[in-house]
Design brief:
Blueprint (H helix, E strand, L loop, with lengths): L2 E5 L3 E2 L6 H19 L3 E9 L3 H10 L3 H18 L6 E4 L3 H16 L3 E11 L4 E3 L17 E10 L5 H10 L4 E2 L1 H12 L5 E2 L1 E2 L7 E2 L2 E6 L1 H6 L1 H4 L7 H7 L3 E6 L3 H14 L7 E5 L2 E3 L2 E2 L10 H5 L11 H11 L7 E2 L2 H30 L12 H18 L3 H22 L8 H21 L4 H10 L39
Parallel strand pairs: 1-3, 1-13, 2-3, 3-4, 8-14, 13-14, 15-17
Antiparallel strand pairs: 5-6, 5-7, 7-9, 10-12, 11-12, 15-16
The structure holds 5'-O-[(L-methionyl)-sulphamoyl]adenosine (MSP).
The site of 5'-O-[(L-methionyl)-sulphamoyl]adenosine has 19 residues, from strand 2, helix 1, helix 7 and strand 13.
Amino acid sequence: MSRFYITTPIYYVNDVPHIGHAYTTVLVDAFARWHNLLGEETFMLTGTDEHGLKIARTAEENGVTPLDQADSTSVRFRDAWEQLGIRNDDFIRTTEPRHHAAVQALMQKVYDNGWIYSDTYEGLYCVSCEAYYTEDELNDGNCKVHDKPAEQMREENYFFKLSAFADQLLDYFENTPGVVQPEGYRNEVLGLLRQELRDVSISRSSIDWGIPVPWDDDHVFYVWYDALINYVTAVGYGADPERFDEWWPSVHHVLGKDIIRFHCVFWPAMLLAAGITDLPTYYVHGWLLIGGEKMSKSKLNSVSPAQLIDGDEDQGYASFGVDGFRYHFLRDPAFGPDSDFSYESMISRYNTDLANQFGNLLQRVITVTGKKCGETSPAPNPDASLGALAAVAVEETTAAWARAQPPIALDATWRLIRETNEYLAANEPWKMEPGAAVDAVMGDALEALRIACILAEPAIPNGAQTAWERIGLPGRVADQRIPDDTAWGGYPGGLTLQAGDPLYPRLKG
Ligand code: MSP
């Protein structure tokens, strides 16, 4: 069976979860669910990044130890993902012993292979990025991401011979189709690789909140190298070689565009240096902005997932529920470019696609079948016109997920839902007398809805399951398989339908 391993970046514990983090996590969860529907064995990883100067300083400001800071914030990420229906298979914290061991094992290997040396480093450091920059990478001395002054730092450091891997990396990114999606970001990576690659500092002696360098106790690893290694820790690097070999070759990293250099330049070089030759595939998304600015606690412009899922009277936010939240963030922001969060678009997306289309289709199908088709439901026709439309929806939805384009995939899925509503509007089964004609219309509509439930499951897992049960189907929609179970004709008929409250009540704009 083929495998699919997918990761979120691990989140810093100086900030609490906001909708920017949730955006990434929902994307990853939806990709994992989709691949699961394809019958692949999937493994989804998320977690928290807990070392480094930024966390140490935040803890100091809050008057707690760095570990207390990490403990209390990590749990908030865990809870936020649970609330969002995220089905992660593991949640890694970089302060865990298993990670400590993997970092030391991997770095020792890189050291033993001769790719690490010691030198003095002096430069301009942005604490928020945990990265050194040159003057021309800054804006008047300010970091371009955080708009804060970079600080002059001087340290005795260990260095990684990044420069030695330039050709191998260029070859990988030039010659591996689909290695970075969308394609524009692959060009960005190629641009980074074509510049002169300078060796990078991988340890710090000025702080102790980190994982000790095994060959020199005065140093801890620089937080970014510690962090990136989480991706191998979680699949057993150093601890369970068999498991590592099973999962690692299928790794897909999902990340925001801000951390491309770390993931697509430093990380694969480090893997090669450790003797790991299977390199990752990347899905890169843009930033979610609020009023044109990147969200952050310090700018006080962040919105928490719970404020939109449960609603927030003070802010005037309606409650979108888990599906409403997930659906908006998967369907609206184009995958790749930046996009501004718009509450108005979220409301209108919910009302058109969830309330008026999916919810309404379910309601109509159940009401009309109950009134016109007797005790149990009718079966579909083998050669229905809706069957051809469903086949197109399956094909287009599948193709778009394969290109890592959730908005396009969901557009294709919702076309089938709209077409089924239009089919009902055109045939007006509610005006027909009970008999074969109305049974034919409703059997086809039930079948189209069954297929739509499967295709929509990665975006709206709760509503898809509820609809599945209300049209009388047994088991879990998430256990269906594409394309076998999305072939026309799978709805058996003869089932008992269950009426219920509207699945997605309309929200006031
Ligand atoms: N800890 C590092 C990642 C280490 S991975 C080995 C880090 N953490 S972070 O919490 O600052 O951001 C992690 C990710 O959260 C970003 O790459 C991005 O995927 C997501 N986002 C954080 N803010 C975001 C937005 N405003 N918009 C979209 N995604 C955002 O970087």
